[in-house]
Predict the 3D structure of the following.
Amino acid sequence: MQDAQNQLITRIGPGTPCGELMRRYWQPAALVDEFDPRLDARLADRPVKAVRLLGQDLVLFRDGAGRFGLLDRDCPHRGADLAFARHEADGIRCPFHGWKFAVDGRCLETPAEPMGSTLCTRVRQRSYPVQVVAGVVFAYLGPEGSTLPALPAFDAFVAPATHSFAFKGLWHCNWLQAFEVGIDPAHPSFLHRYLQDESLDATYGRQFRAASVGEVDGERWPMTRVMREVCSPEIHHEEVAPGLTKLTTLRLINDRLTHVRVTHAAFPHTFVIPLSETVTITQVHVPVDDEHTYWYSFFTSFAGPLDKETMRQQRLAHMTLPDYVPIHGRHDHWNFNAEEQRSRTYLGMGEEDINLHDQWAVESMGAIADRTREHLGQSDKVIMANRRVLLKAITTVQAGGTPPMVLTAADAAALQGPDTMDCIAPAADWQAFWQQAATAKRAGASWLQASAPTSA
């Protein structure tokens, strides 16, 4: 890849071509949990947070009626920082001269002005549309007055609160390398390889530790064993809707059985993968700026309600609050342990936090990976295909067109699922097997009215 192309697909600030593309989509801005005083006591009486998103500095707050507002962070009076604003029932007030703003950006008061002044009626702070979905505050940073797109009716966004859980983490790298690790079907056989398997009784909420659907000669295999024993998968990818790609990875176990892993990539930066037989992860990779990315994971259960507190504590053990910054990183060599690498894991960076494995991979490339030095192979064909789609989408926006996955309400409602699977299937009939398993999974979800799998 040429350096000019690499710059084109990684730079996301205001006015950049890729930044203009990204501003056509709803972006996660914060977890609702971030406004929970149990996790951040400072927000009990003052629910105001500084937010950086797509290279812009913003302030997110919740007024007395519980409504969220997202505003530019610099006060329109003289530019003071509204992240330090006074919180009031109907808005936030700049401490510099007392100007007050509502969640929609209206200036409510300019108290230093003379009696009868109408200045506040002529001032408006730039505000951005927000919506709360699945425990996350989404924001739209597109052009003012533009028609808002709709989020797809993915399982992660329509499941009830009892069956969904959201979490996030910060990586010190560009958004694209963060996303590309997630759509790379080959890397789990190496990066996430465990040299021993654990009891299947202690796998709740832990990725790759749970058993795959199906058996090998009466034995249930965890995904860790499959990846360890079959490291050169057969990779298929197909577009099932504009901007939605199904990824199917086959790992042949013997002449009778193959492991099937079905995931999806949704443009521009979301993937959907199985966590276990009954839980799916939908992960979005949100550009903070050119060199930082938040991943947001949405966990969706197709069986019973999720134990959200257990899942939260499992993950908070590896994070520092309030900003969800990983405990380990470049500063401590990502907790690398040479003895562990020899005896327990292929990477040597712990067994409990699989996100740390991905974090090392993407952060060790540098803040923005130098793709001019890459040597890509057949196992990278999904990465190459996604880059082609990204470059085409940037060109489409530059020409005034509509890129993939910018959806009308009708199109969004029709885009359901998508199904994921991790199963051991008959080698000769694997497609029918995984689809039947997906049907059974969906039939077990009390919150889903349809029992048939989606076409995706």
